[in-house]
Amino acid sequence: MKNLLILLTLLISFGNLQAQSDVFKGAILLGGYFNLTIQKKQVPYLGSTLGIAGASYSSRPNDASSTDISISPTFGKEFSQNWALGVKLNFRNRTYKSRIPISFSIPILVDAKNISQQIGTGFFARYTFNPKQKLNFFLQPVLDVNSATEEYKVDDELRTDHKVAYLKIGIDGGLLYNLNNRFRFTANMAGLSFSTGKWKNLITDESDNFLVFNTRIRISSISFGIELKI
After folding, report:
1. Separation of alpha carbons 46 and 63, rounded Å
2. Would you state the pLDDT for residue 9?
3. Mean pLDDT, 10 residues at a time, over the chain (230 residues)?
4. Is 70:94 a contact under the CB 8 Å cutoff?
5. What class does CATH assign to 26-229?
6. pTM of the complete model
7. Exposure of 155 in the CB half-sphere (CA atoms within 13 A)
8. Structural domain spans, the chain
């Protein structure tokens, strides 16, 4: 919470500085990103998996599938030809279903389901290269605060109920394509990130802290969107 207040103060300070200057009239930015991933025969809880080209799939005939949808509305302000600052919201829902054996010695299959939901907010600072070109590249440092829940059920019996809260700092990359002076398409890909937080199992009351450093870049992680300049 302290970090969010500091960043919010910085954002307001930049806005005050911009209001005092007539050199550059920056636009208000309204937009967002959308990502949908649907996979079949993907990563069962039991059984070996194979991966290629950023996708993973089961090497066993068990029925497994997942649906992952994320939406991130954004609101920002241009402060120069290259720099923009803004805030964003994060919404994500992932559902994983599979048929798994009761145990290695009992081949009877049961239904397994994992449902995770995430909500959060964050700040971003975007640097755009060659902003006067129709197509250009940007780098975007981000700071997110997220909370999530995750349930794992076997034949509708709740086996795991996790609650997670974490802070993420990272640098995203992406492309902007200017359709005209008002609209442009956006494509955002997660790059480097560092996350720290805490999880708790609400059934067993177990909890622990965690640290994650991620450098994974996959085609399935690209989010597409549109942005309006006012």
Report:
1. 11
2. 54
3. 51 49 74 88 44 45 78 95 95 88 73 93 96 93 96 91 96 93 90 93 95 78 91
4. no
5. mainly beta
6. 0.78
7. 6
8. 26-229
